[in-house]
C-alpha cells in the first residue's frame, strides 16, 4: 500500500522511537502488515487504535532498556574515569589540586566582592538616602569635595524643599572617656545625631522608642555591646552614663550596626545636647561656613537626587554664599551623593571612616578570574596531552559502535567529575583559608553556604563553566580520532596539536609574569612611600593626647619637667603631628593692593614644633623664645606656600589671622604632612596653644622602655582622671598606607598562587613530555649523549616558552602599573630591573619544576627505556 | 543442551513449514491456523529473539514488499544447531510417545 495516511505516519514515528534500533525495520513492517489486515477487516479506526495500543505496550520495555543501558554506560564511564585517576596519580593530583586552588581563589573573591557590594544596602530606605558633600574648590572636581557640610543645611533644606522628607546631621564625638560607676573606658564610636536618625537609617532599637529616643538634650542610644560592657546583665534603659564630664540618660538600646556600613558607631547622643549650649549654638549651628557636620537627606519616593542637586546652587546663593565669601573668601558648591555609592565610589576628604574603592574590587575580580583561567588551561593542556594515551580507548569505543556524541559526552562528563572533585577540595580550602583571608582584607566574612545563594549559584556556575570550558577542547579533539589510524600505529595522534599546547603555556606564564611584575611594583612603591624623604624625622617620636585643659595651660612647665629626663630630647604641644589631623583654615594675606583671603593648612603649636619634628628651616629662622613678639606675631610657611602664593620675598610677607597680625619669620622645607597620594599643600605654622590636642616628644633611641615609663608616671601625676595613652608617630604615619599594604599583600599571595598553579601545569606537561620521549632519550644515551646534553634538550623548549611569555607580559604589566601609579602624587618610575627580575623569577621556577623530571629522565638507564614493549 | 519449550518447538516447526517466508507475521498466522486460537505478536516475538540469541535460528532481511510500506521482512531459518536441537527434541518425544502409541492401539 503506497498511500500512507497521516495518522499512521505519526504513529509510525513514535513506534520507531520506542523499539530497539536493530528491530526497527522489520517490526515496523510487521506492524504495518497487521494494521492493513485489521483495517481491511474491522475498519481504519480500529486498526489505528490497535496500532496505538501496540506502541503504548512497548513503552515500559523501552524505558527499562534505555535506563539499563544508560546506567551500564555511566558505570563504565565512571569506572574508566576512576581507573584513569588511579593510574595517573600525578596527573590527577595536578589537575584536581590546580583547579581546586583556582576555584578557592575565585570563591574567596566572590565572598569579598559580595561583601563590598553589600555596604549600606541593609537600610530599608537606602535608595532614597543621599549625603550632602561640599567643596570650596573652584575646580569642581569630585575628588576635591569633602564629606562634611555645615549645620544649617539640614533643617533649611527640609523646610525649603518638599521633596526632602527628612534630614539628619552627624557630629563626630571622637575619642571620649565613658564612665559608669567604677568602669572607665575610652570609646571611639560616639556620634551626635538628630532625632530623625532612626527614621532615615535602619538601626533597629531593641529597647526605647525610635521616634523620640534622641529628642531631648543629654539623651543617648547605645549599642547592645556597650550596654553589656557597662551595665552587664542589668537593665540599661534610664541609667546615666558619664561621657567626659557630661551625664547622659540612656533612652534606647540598638542592635550593633552591621559591619558593612560606611560608618560605625556604638553610641548616638542627641544633637540637642550640643545645640542647647549657647556658645556652640552660635559658633556651629548658625554658621554656614563651619563645615563640621555630616548631612544625610531622605528624599521622597519618586524624587531624584539629580533634580534636587540642580536646585542647590540657588539655595546656596540665597542663604550661605555671602557668609562663606566673607569668612572663607571662597565659593561653596554642594552635591548629593547616593548612600549606596559612598563605600565604593566616594573616598572624599574627611570620610567618617576609610572607604574602599571599586577599583580594588575590579582588580581582585580580574586577578581571581586569571587564576581560574590558569587552572583551566592546566586542565585542558594535561587532558589533551594525555589524550594520546587514550587514543586507543577511543578507537576501540568507536569500533564497537560508540557514536561521536557519546564520546564527547563521556569526556565532558569526566571533566565535570574532575571539576566536582576539585570543587569539594576548593570548599575545604576556602574554610581553611578564610581566617587568613579575613585578616588580609580586614573583613569578617563568614561562609554560610546553605544561606548564601550567591555563593551557591556561583559554585554551580563555576562547576559547569570550568567543567565544560576545560573539558570541551579535549572532548571534541579526542572524539575526532579516526579509529583506523589510532589502532593501526603507535604513533602519537596528539602531537599535531602541540602548538596549541605551547600557546596555552605561554598564556599561563604571561599572566603569572604580569602578576609578579605588579607585585614587585606595588612593593617598590610602598617602600618608596615609607622611606621617601618626608621632610621630618618620623622615628622615635612619642605622641600623647591631651585630655585635660590644665595640661594645655601649663605646657611650658610640663615641657621643662619632661626635659629633665635625659631620654627626652625635645617636646612640643600641637594640634597634630604629620599623618594626623591638620586643620584647613582661612588666613588673610596682606599685600599692597589690600587684603586677600586664602585657604591654607594650619598647624597651631608652640615654639618647639620644628625642632621636635626634625624639620629644616631653609630661609629665615625658627620660632625663638628670645623674641617676645614670636608668641603672637610670627608665622612660618612651607616652601609649597611660597611657590603657590607666589611670595617673592617670603620674609617680608604679612599675614592677618583672627585678631592677630604678624609676618613670616621663616620658611620650612616642604614636609609630607598628609599621605603621599596627595601633593604637599601650602601650610602655615603659628604659635597658638589653645587649640592643641597632642603632646609630642622626641626621645633617644636608647632606653625607650625606661623613657616611656617615665612619661607614663609623669602623666599619671598630671592627669590622674584619664588613663594614659600614647602612640609612636611612625606607626600612625605608616597607617595611612594600610590600603596599599593590603593590596601588596593580596597581590603577593595571588601571584604566588598563580605561579604555583602554572608550575603545576608545567610539571604535568614535563611529565608527559619525558614519557613521550623515553625512547628518544634512551637512543641518544646509547649513542653517547651526555647527561648534561639531555638535560638541556629537555629544558630548552620550555625555557623558550617562558621567554616568549615575557613578550606579552611586559607591555601589559607596564600598562596596568603605569595606570595604577597615577593615583600617587609621588611615585616610583617602573624600573627595567623589575621586568628582568620578574622574568628571571618565572624562568627559574619553571626550570626548577621541569628539572625534577628532566634529571630523572636523563639519569635513567637506557636499557630500561629501550626494553619496554 | 537445554531442551526446547513447547512454544519454541512450535515456532521452529512453523519456520520449517513456511520455508522461505518465515517472518514474524507469517509465523503468527501459521500458528493461529494450526492451533485454531488467536496468537499474539509478542508471544512469538520474544521466543524468536531468544532462539536467535541461542543460535538455534538465524535471520536475514528479505526483499522489500509494497504491502509493508516498503519495509523489508526479517526471514528466519533454522541453523545447524537448531536442527540438532530439534532432532534431540524429537528423539526424546518419540521415545516417550512410543509407549503411548502401543497403549492406545492396544485399547482399540
Describe the structure.
The complex is a heterodimer of chains A (869) and B (108). Chain A is of the alpha+beta class and 869 residues long. In chain A, α13 runs antiparallel to α18. In chain A, strands 1, 2, 3, 4, 5, 6, 7, 8, 9, 10, 11, 12 and 13 form a 13-stranded mixed β-sheet that branches. Chain A has a 6-stranded mixed β-barrel with strand order 16-17-22-19-21-20. In chain A, strands 15-23-14-24 form a 4-stranded antiparallel β-sheet. In chain A, β20 (654-657) and β21 (660-668) form a beta hairpin. The mean pLDDT of chain A is 84. Helix content of chain A is 54%, strand content 16%. Chain B has 108 residues and is α+β, with helices and mostly antiparallel strands. Chain B contains 4 helices and 2 strands. Chain B has a two-stranded antiparallel sheet with strand order 1-2. The termini of chain B are far apart. The interface between A and B is medium-sized, with 16 and 15 residues.
In short:
By secondary structure, chain A is α+β, with helices and mostly antiparallel strands. Chain B has 108 residues and is an alpha+beta fold.
Protein traits:
heterodimer, A: 869 residues, alpha+beta, 4 domains, 13-stranded mixed sheet, 6-stranded mixed β-barrel, 24 strands, 54% helix, 16% strand, B: 108 residues, Arc Repressor Mutant, subunit A, two-stranded antiparallel sheet, 61% helix, 14% strand
Which overall shape of chain A is indicated by the principal axes computed on the Cα atoms?
A: globular
Q: How many individual β-strands of chain A? A: 24
Bulk shape of chain B: elongated
Distance between the amino and carboxyl termini of chain B: 38 Å
| Helix and strand run of chain B | HHHEEH
Mean pLDDT of chain A: 84
Number of strands of chain B: 2
Largest sheet of chain B: 2 strands, antiparallel
- Strand proportion of chain A: 15-25%
Helix content of chain B: 55-70%
Outline the secondary-structure elements.
The complex is a heterodimer of chains A (869) and B (108).
Chain A: H1 6-18, H2 24-42, H3 44-87, H4 89-117, E1 129-135, E2 149-150, H5 153-160, E3 164-172, E4 176-180, E5 183-187, E6 190-193, H6 197-200, E7 205-207, E8 219-223, H7 224-231, E9 240-243, E10 246-254, E11 267-270, H8 272-275, H9 278-285, E12 291-299, H10 305-319, H11 321-328, E13 333-338, H12 342-345, H13 358-387, H14 391-399, H15 404-441, H16 453-478, H17 483-488, H18 498-531, E14 541-545, H19 549-553, H20 555-563, E15 568-574, E16 583-591, E17 594-605, H21 609-613, E18 617-620, H22 630-633, E19 634-638, H23 639-644, E20 654-657, E21 660-668, E22 683-687, E23 694-699, H24 704-718, E24 727-728, H25 729-735, H26 738-772, H27 774-782, H28 787-821, H29 832-859, H30 862-867
Parallel strand pairs in A: 6-11, 8-10, 17-22, 19-21
Antiparallel strand pairs in A: 1-12, 1-13, 2-12, 3-6, 3-12, 4-5, 4-9, 7-10, 8-11, 9-10, 14-23, 14-24, 15-23, 16-17, 16-20, 18-21, 19-22, 20-21
Chain B: H1 6-18, H2 24-35, H3 41-53, E1 57-64, E2 72-78, H4 80-107
Antiparallel strand pairs in B: 1-2
Helix pairs in contact in B: 1-2, 2-3
Amino acid at each position: 500500500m503506497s498511500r500512507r495516511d497521516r495518522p499512521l505516519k505519526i504513529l509510525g514515528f513514535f513506534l520507531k522511537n520506542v523499539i530497539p534500533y536493530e528491530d526497527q525495520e522489520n517490526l515496523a513492517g510487521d506492524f504495518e502488515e497487521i494494521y492493513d489486515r485489521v483495517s481491511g477487516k474491522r475498519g481504519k479506526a480500529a486498526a489505528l487504535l490497535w496500532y496505538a495500543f501496540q506502541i503504548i505496550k512497548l513503552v515500559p520495555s523501552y524505558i527499562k532498556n534505555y535506563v539499563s543501558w544508560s546506567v551500564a554506560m555511566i558505570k563504565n564511564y565512571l569506572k574508566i574515569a576512576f581507573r584513569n585517576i588511579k593510574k595517573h596519580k600525578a596527573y590527577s593530583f595536578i589537575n584536581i589540586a590546580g583547579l581546586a586552588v583556582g576555584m578557592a581563589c575565585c570563591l574567596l573573591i566572590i565572598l569579598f566582592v559580595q561583601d563590598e557590594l553589600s555596604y549600606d544596602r541593609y537600610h530599608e530606605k537606602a535608595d532614597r538616602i543621599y549625603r550632602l558633600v561640599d567643596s570650596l574648590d573652584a575646580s569642581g572636581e569630585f575628588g576635591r569635595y569633602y564629606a562634611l557640610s555645615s549645620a544649617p543645611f539640614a533643617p533649611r533644606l527640609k523646610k525649603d524643599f518638599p521633596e526632602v522628607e527628612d534630614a539628619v546631621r552627624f557630629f563626630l564625638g571622637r575619642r571620649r572617656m565613658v564612665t559608669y560607676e567604677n568602669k572607665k573606658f575610652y570609646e571611639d564610636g560616639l556620634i551626635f545625631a538628630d532625632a530623625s536618625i532612626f527614621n532615615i537609617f535602619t538601626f533597629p532599637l531593641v529597647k526605647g522608642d525610635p521616634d523620640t529616643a534622641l529628642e531631648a538634650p543629654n539623651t543617648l542610644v547605645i549599642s547592645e555591646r556597650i550596654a553589656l560592657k557597662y551595665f552587664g546583665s542589668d537593665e540599661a534603659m534610664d541609667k546615666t552614663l558619664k561621657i567626659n564630664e557630661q551625664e547622659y540618660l540612656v533612652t534606647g538600646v540598638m542592635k550593633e550596626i552591621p559591619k558593612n556600613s560606611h560608618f560605625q558607631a556604638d553610641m548616638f547622643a542627641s544633637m540637642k545636647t550640643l545645640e542647647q549650649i549657647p556658645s556652640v549654638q552660635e559658633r556651629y549651628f548658625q554658621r554656614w561656613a563651619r563645615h563640621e557636620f555630616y548631612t544625610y537627606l531622605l528624599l521622597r519616593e519618586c524624587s531624584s537626587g539629580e533634580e534636587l542637586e540642580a536646585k542647590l546652587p540657588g539655595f546656596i546663593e540665597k542663604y550661605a554664599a555671602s557668609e562663606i565669601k566673607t569668612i572663607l573668601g571662597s565659593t561653596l558648591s554642594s552635591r548629593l551623593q547616593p548612600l549606596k555609592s559612598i563605600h565604593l565610589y566616594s573616598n572624599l576628604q574627611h570620610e567618617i571612616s576609610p572607604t574602599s574603592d571599586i577599583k580594588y574590587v575590579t582588580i581582585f575580580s580580574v586577578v581571581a578570574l586569571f587564576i581560574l583561567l590558569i587552572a583551566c588551561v592546566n586542565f585542558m593542556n594535561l587532558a589533551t596531552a594525555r589524550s594520546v594515551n587514550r587514543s586507543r580507548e577511543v578507537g576501540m569505543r568507536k569500533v564497537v559502535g560508540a557514536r561521536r556524541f557519546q564520546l564527547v559526552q563521556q569526556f565532558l562528563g569526566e571533566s565535570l567529575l574532575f571539576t566536582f572533585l576539585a570543587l569539594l577540595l576548593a570548599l575545604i580550602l576556602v574554610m581553611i583559608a578564610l581566617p587568613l583571608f579575613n585578616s588580609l582584607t580586614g573583613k569578617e566574612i563568614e561562609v554560610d553556604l546553605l544561606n548564601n545563594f550567591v555563593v551557591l549559584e556561583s559554585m554551580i556556575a563555576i562547576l559547569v563553566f570550568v567543567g565544560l570550558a576545560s573539558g570541551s577542547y579535549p572532548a571534541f579533539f579526542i572524539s575526532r580520532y579516526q579509529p583506523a589510524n589510532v589502532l593501526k600505529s603507535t604513533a602519537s595522534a596528539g602531537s599535531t596539536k602541540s602548538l596549541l599546547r605551547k600557546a596555552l603555556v605561554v598564556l599561563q606564564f604571561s599572566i603569572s609574569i604580569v602578576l609578579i611584575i605588579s607585585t614587585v611594583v606595588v612593593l617598590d612603591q610602598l617602600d618608596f612611600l615609607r622611606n621617601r624623604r618626608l621632610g621630618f624625622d618620623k622615628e622615635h617620636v612619642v605622641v600623647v593626647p591631651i585630655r585635660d585643659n590644665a595640661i594645655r595651660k601649663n605646657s611650658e612647665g610640663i615641657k621643662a619637667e619632661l626635659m629633665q629626663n635625659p631620654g627626652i630630647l625635645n617636646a612640643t604641644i600641637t594640634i597634630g603631628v604629620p599623618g594626623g589631623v591638620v586643620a584647613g583654615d582661612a588666613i588673610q594675606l596682606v599685600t599692597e593692593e589690600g587684603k586677600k583671603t586664602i585657604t591654607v593648612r594650619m598647624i597651631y603649636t608652640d615654639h618647639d614644633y620644628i625642632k621636635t619634628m626634625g624639620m629644616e628651616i631653609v630661609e629665615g629662622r625658627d620660632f625663638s623664645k628670645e623674641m617676645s613678639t614670636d608668641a603672637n606675631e610670627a608665622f612660618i610657611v612651607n616652601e609649597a606656600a611660597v611657590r603657590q602664593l607666589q611670595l617673592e620675598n617670603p620674609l617680608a610677607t604679612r599675614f592677618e589671622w583672627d585678631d592677630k597680625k604678624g609676618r613670616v619669620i621663616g620658611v620650612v622645607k616642604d614636609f609630607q604632612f598628609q599621605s603621599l597620594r596627595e601633593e604637599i599643600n601650602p601650610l602655615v605654622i603659628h604659635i597658638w596653644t589653645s587649640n592643641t590636642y597632642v603632646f609630642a616628644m622626641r626621645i633617644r633611641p636608647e632606653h625607650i622602655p625606661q623613657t616611656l615609663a617615665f612619661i607614663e608616671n609623669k602623666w599619671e601625676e598630671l592627669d590622674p582622671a584619664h588613663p594614659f595613652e600614647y602612640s609612636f608617630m611612625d606607626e600612625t604615619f605608616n597607617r595611612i598606607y594600610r590600603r596599599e599594604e593590603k593590596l601588596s599583600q593580596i597581590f603577593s599571595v595571588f601571584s604566588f598562587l598563580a605561579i604555583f598553579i602554572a608550575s603545576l601545569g608545567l610539571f604535568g606537561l614535563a611529565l608527559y613530555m619525558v614519557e613521550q620521549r623515553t625512547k628518544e632519550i634512551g637512543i641518544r644515551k646509547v649513542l653517547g649523549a651526555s647527561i648534561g646534553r639531555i638535560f638541556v634538550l629537555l629544558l630548552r623548549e620550555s625555557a623558550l616558552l617562558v621567554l616568549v611569555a615575557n613578550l606579552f607580559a611586559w607591555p601589559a604589566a607596564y600598562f596596568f602599573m603605569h595606570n595604577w601609579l597615577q593615583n600617587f602624587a609621588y611615585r616610583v618610575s617602573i624600573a627595567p630591573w623589575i621586568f628582568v627580575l620578574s622574568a628571571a623569577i618565572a624562568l627559574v621556577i619553571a626550570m626548577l619544576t621541569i628539572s625534577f623530571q628532566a634529571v630523572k629522565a636523563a639519569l635513567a638507564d637506557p636499557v630500561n627505556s629501550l626494553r619496554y614493549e | 543442551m537445554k531442551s526446547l519449550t513447547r512454544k519454541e518447538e512450535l515456532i521452529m516447526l512453523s519456520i520449517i513449514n513456511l520455508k522461505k517466508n518465515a517472518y514474524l507475521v507469517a509465523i503468527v498466522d501459521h500458528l493461529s491456523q494450526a492451533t485454531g486460537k488467536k496468537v499474539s505478536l509478542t508471544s512469538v516475538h520474544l521466543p524468536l529473539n531468544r532462539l536467535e540469541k541461542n543460535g538455534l535460528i538465524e535471520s536475514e532481511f528479505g526483499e522489500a514488499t509494497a504491502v509493508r510500506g516498503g519495509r523489508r521482512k526479517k526471514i528466519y531459518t533454522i541453523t545447524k544447531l537448531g536442527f540438532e536441537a530439534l532432532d534431540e527434541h524429537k528423539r526424546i518425544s518419540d521415545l516417550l510417545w512410543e509407549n503411548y502409541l502401543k497403549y492406545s492401539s492396544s485399547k482399540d
